[in-house]
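Before our next group meeting I need something from you. Please put the record directly below this note.
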Amino acid sequence: MFTGLVQQISKLSRRETTAGGLRLVIAGAPWHPPLTLGESIAVNGVCLTIAHIQGNNFSCDILQETLDRTTLGGKRPGTALNLERALRLGDPLGGHMVAGHVDGIGTVYSRQAKGRDWILRVTCGADLMRGMVLKGSIAIDGVSLTIVELDQHSFAVALIPFTCEHTTLGILNTGDTVNLETDLIGKHVRRTLETEQAPTPLTWERLHKAGFGEG
């Protein structure tokens, strides 16, 4: 589990093909405490497992499902990446609950200045849009944000200067693709409502079987 508060921006050092799969080698600054093998880490919002560590570099293996559903497969060496270590018991939950399970990919439609802030508008598929609500939470490339505008085909978030300076969102351009994870609690509520069967009509027979009207 993560919070959507980026702790470090690192760069993709290289891509390795291993037994038909893909391994990403990421170079970053030292971590305190140091990273450990098997630890979960969010890379641009994708929960990955650290498979190898060498100095300040660490490697993660990428599943085909991850390649199909996220932007990681298209990243090239030198690309900046948002990193966040998994939440530990007792850590403050400053953003929102982020699972690191990306729902799909969005495309940056526009990035407009608003005073000292920026309004970032992203388009995505209808299925993703159904999981969003105005003033609800959204994770974009692993960054916890609040939806400030919403229509049928796109949504917008406001980026403060700190977010632009300390995450990769500050260097996004129109046409760039991003990983999207909709609100975790909202997804469960939506699933429940979509699968819940219509209630059985109340009849005298049902009341009688329940013990009403006797005696």
About this structure: Residues 184-195 form the longest helix (12 residues).
